[in-house]
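User: Hey, my collaborator sent me this sequence without any context and asked if I could get a structure. I don't really work with proteins. Can you help?
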Amino acid sequence: MASLITSALAKRSLQASAALKPICSSIVRKEAFGYQQRHTSYSRNSTVVPDFSAYKKENSGEDSGRAFSYFMVGTTGLATAVMAKATVYDFLTNLSASADVLALAKVEVDLANIPEGKNVVVKWRGKPVFIRHRTPAEINEANSVNVSELRDPQQDSERAKQPEWMIMLGICTHLGCVPIGEAGDYGGWYCPCHGSHYDISGRIRKGPAPLNLEIPEYTIDGNQLIIG
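Assistant: No problem. I've predicted the 3D structure and written it out in structure-token form, which is a compact way to encode the shape of the chain:
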């Protein structure tokens, strides 16, 4: 009988211990969790993390694309400027006169080789130039003309720097033909294309030409004529 009672008490004691074990485990876990929460809260409250949001660039992708676009535009502009400079330099180099062209810019003529009463034709800048060594009679005839009756009024002294030398471009002022010397109604030059007559001073006297024969720029130094 006593053994049965002892066995029953032991069984109840084991059941009570089994029932209390989950409760104790729960209490222990709650206590541990509470300690962890307190520790974490304390750690968070005690650590100050700086705020770097003000230094963070917004739209960094757009800024990167814009910088690349600026770089490409600048590079393209620089390359274009270099090519334009080279093109302009080549153009100006080709445009400038060569040595042989500069040599023809001025023509020198020895007047001592031209007899009195004779014509000489020289080429200057691709144009014919008439050089006439006039006689005293031709000079008097040129000065005796009534200038007011001329189509293009000019005194002979306005056209000849030295009376004995008449230097003119040999191009008719009508349509650009080359007149013939010692011909025409006035003893000067005659244009066979349309019948213009020029006197011994190269002034238009008859025909369709509107102006006198043009006088080029020239200087006479002794017997040396420099045209241009």
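In plain terms: The beta strands are 107-110, 119-124, 127-133, 165-169, 180-181, 187-191, 196-199, 204-206, 218-221, 224-227. You can pass these tokens on to your collaborator as they are.
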